[in-house]
Amino acid sequence: SQQIQFADDMQEFTKFPTKTGRRSLSRSISQSSTDSYSSAASYTDSSDDEVSPREKQQTNSKGSSNFCVKNIKQAEFGRREIEIAEQDMSALISLRKRAQGEKPLAGAKIVGCTHITAQTAVLIETLCALGAQCRWSACNIYSTQNEVAAALAEAGVAVFAWKGESEDDFWWCIDRCVNVDGWQANMILDDGGDLTHWVYKKYPSVFKKIRGIVEESVTGVHRLYQLSKAGKLCVPAMNVNDSVTKQKFDNLYCCRESILDGLKRTTDVMFGGKQVVVCGYGEVGKGCCAALKALGAIVYVTEIDPICALQACMDGFRVVKLSEVIRQVDVVITCTGNKNVVTREHLDRMKNSCIVCNMGHSNTEIDVTSLRMPELTWERVRSQVDHVIWPDGKRVVLLAEGRLLNLSCSTVPTFVLSITATTQALALIELYNAPEGRYKQDVYLLPKKMDEYVASLHLPSFDAHLTELTDDQAKYLGLNKNGPFKPNYY
C-alpha cells in the first residue's frame, strides 16, 4: 500500500537513535493512527455499504462545500455537544475573552490533525476567535464525533473527517487540508505526527515556510526529535506532550478516569478480584493502575525502566514479565508507546475470554496483524469489540482493534482536555508571535511561565485560592513572587 512505500522513503522518520537523552520509544513503520490492514479484511460492518462521505455533495447553510463530513444535517446536535463541553472548558473561553480584542493569531493559517471531539472543537473555535483560519483532519480513524465535525463545518471550519475512515480516507483527508488553491498553511497543530510527516514528505516547499509546529503526543514528539537529530527539521516545534500541564494531567488524571469508562462500556466487566496486567508505568500506566486498584483488581505491572518499576513497587504493584502472568490474567492493558509489547505468542497463551486493549497513542503495541491469519476467526460482537477465536474454541476479546481505547470506545473527561487545549493554544500564539530568532529550528518545551499560567486559569473552577510569597520569602527561595516557581526541567 501507499503507506508502506511511504515509510520506506522516510528513513529519517523510522530510524531512531539507540541512546538518546530521552527514553527511547520504539516506533513501527506503520503510522500512529492506521495500520496496513483494513478491518474489511475480516468482516463487514453494516455501515460499509453506505455511500462514502467522499462521494456525497454537501453544503452548509451558507452554501459552502469546503469540508467533508459524514452528515452536515447533524450540525445542530453537534453544536449542543460543543456547548456542553464549553461549560467545563472555562479557561479556553476566558482566553477567548481576554485575547479577542487583540487577535494574537490574525493571519495564522493553521492546519490541524487531532481527535475531532466536542472538546477539540472548543479549541478550534477558540483559535478562530483569536483570528486564525483553520483546516482540520482527524488523527485517528475511530475517534471523530460525526455530529461535532458537522457543527464545525456548519460554522465555516474546513474539516475533513468522519468516524470509521479507511486507510486511504485518512491520508486523503490530511491531503485535502494541506493541498488547497490560494491558501497555504503557516502553522501546524499535530497529534501523532502524521500531518507533519505528510507535509514534510509531500509538500517540502510548504514545510519550509511553516512558522511553527505544535505536537502533543509522545509518538509525534519522538518523530520530531528524530527529524531534528537528522538535521531535517527546518522549523521550530513546540513539544507540548512533555509540558507539565499535559504530562501530569492529560496522561495521568485523564487515563485514571477514562480507562474504566472504556472497559465498562465495551465489556461490562466487573473489576473486583480480577487479575490485570498493565504494560508500562509511565503517567498513563500510573493512572490506569490507580483506578483498577481502587475497584479491587489485582494489578501487575511490566516495566523496562528501573525507576518506573521501583515507583510501581512503592505503589503496591507486583512488577513482573508479561510471560510470567499471561496465562492467569483476565485483562491486558498496554500503555508503553512501544511496538509489539503483546505478541502472537502472548495471545496464544492467554486464557479464554481474556480482554486485550491499548491505552497508548500508537496502535502498534498489540501485534494485531498476527491475528489476521486464516486459522483464527474474527467475530464482531459490538461496535469496537471483536472476539478472536482460536481453532480450539478459545476466545480473546480485542477492543478497538488495538487502537486507543478511551478515544475509540468512550469519551475523555472534558476538564482535563481543557488544560491540554489551553496549553496548545498558548504554544501556537507563542510560536506565531515570537520575534525572529527567538526559536531556532529545533524542538522546544513550553516556557514554564506559560505552564503555570494555564494551571492558574483552571483554579477558579475549584474556588482555589493561591498564597502569595512575601518579599522576604521570595528572596529566601531565590524566586520571583510571580513565578516561574518550577525549574525548566520539571
Fold and architecture overview:
- NAD(+) binds at residues 282-287, 303, 406.
- Residues 1-65 are annotated as: Disordered.
- The chain is an alpha/beta fold.
- The protein contains 19 helices and 15 strands.
- The strands form two sheets. The protein has an eight-stranded mixed beta sheet, with helices on one face.
- A hairpin with a 2-residue loop joins strand 12 and strand 13 (385-389).
- The longest helix is centred in the middle third of the chain and has 24 residues, at 244-267.
Question: Beta-sheet strand percentage?
Answer: 5-15%
- Give the full name of the CATH homologous superfamily of the largest domain: Adenosylhomocysteinase-like
What is the helix tally? Answer: 19
Rg on CA atoms, Å: 22 Å
Round the mean pLDDT to the nearest integer and report it: 88
Main pleated-sheet profile: 8 strands, mixed
Query: What percentage of residues falls in helices of 4 or more residues?
Result: 25-40%
- The CATH architecture assignment of the largest domain turns out to be 3-Layer(aba) Sandwich
Low-confidence stretches: 1-48
> Distance between termini?
42 Å
Looking at the structure, the CATH topology of the largest domain is Rossmann fold
Counting DSSP E segments of at least 2 residues, the number of strands comes to 15
